[in-house]
Amino acid sequence: MSPRRTAALRGFRASAPFAIVMLPFGILFGVIATESGLTLPQTIGFSVLVVAGAAQFAAVQMMADNAPVLVIIATALAVNLRMAMYSAALTPHLGTAPGWLRATIAYVLTDQTFAVAAVDYDRRPAQRPGEKAAFFFGSVLPVCPVWYLSTALGAQLGTAIPPALSIDFAVPLTFIAIVAPLLRSPAHIAAAVVSVALALGLAGLPYNTGLLLAAAGAMATGALTEIWLERGVRA
């Protein structure tokens, strides 16, 4: 078996467990989107074009609350700012790929694919760029197709899912599974603590603007913590 195929299979196996929570996650979004007034094509198109579960949830809920368009866009962008940080972290590994390939990677970049790729690249720094790209796309297979299909399933089911069958657990469970293994430095932990504290403390603000402030506060905390630690080491 070629090194690239081996890397792709390793990527598939690494992200396969995420499919277990992606299924109810996508179904939940499909249900919420249709209950908020989106049609089946609009709901599926939203997932195919955006491919960002957290931002989609935030946007749809704010649309249902008749929030101003600019606030919805700002919130979605704030939620997805982490993708810029993901891209920067992957650039040393995948930045030499052709432009079309980098564009495709950017399209399917998710929390799950980044998490498994970052761990694998740290463990195997000697991999060639082609192997790293193969691993990344292997990790995409259990994530993005499941997201598309589960969204369509949820949109078709709509209100047919009884309230007693709660599937909203999938949202926090997914992000706990992604974030927890990545909290490997004091800066990461400080940012996580501040984000949780601010998000809970500012939950009463209108149009989820507390989420914007929590994201900004967490990023500032992480950056300041790293600066303080570097100064401490130099001193």
Provide a descriptive summary of the structure in words.
With 235 residues, the chain is mostly helical. The protein contains 13 helices and no strands. The protein has helices at 3-15, 18-35, 40-50, 53-64, 69-79, 81-94, 99-108, 111-123, 129-140, 144-157, 170-179, 186-201, 209-234. Helix 2 packs parallel to helix 10 (144-157) and helix 4 runs antiparallel to helix 5 (69-79). The longest helix has 26 residues, at 209-234. The chain is globular. It starts with a helix and ends with a helix. The model has no long low-confidence stretch (mean pLDDT 84).
Features:
single chain, mainly alpha, 235 residues
How much helix is in the residues? over 70%
How many discrete domains?
2
Q: What is the arithmetic mean of pLDDT? A: 84
Overall number of strands: 0
Question: What's the total helix number?
Answer: 13
Quaternary state of this entry equals single chain
How would you classify the helix and strand content by structural class?
mainly alpha
Give the helices and strands as they follow along the chain: HHHHHHHHHHHHH
Backbone CA Rg: 19 Å
Residue runs with pLDDT of under 50 for 5 or more positions: none
Intertermini distance: 51 Å
Rough outline: globular
Strand content: under 5%
Largest sheet: none
Summarize the helices and strands and which ones pair or pack:
Blueprint: H1 3-15, H2 18-35, H3 40-50, H4 53-64, H5 69-79, H6 81-94, H7 99-108, H8 111-123, H9 129-140, H10 144-157, H11 170-179, H12 186-201, H13 209-234
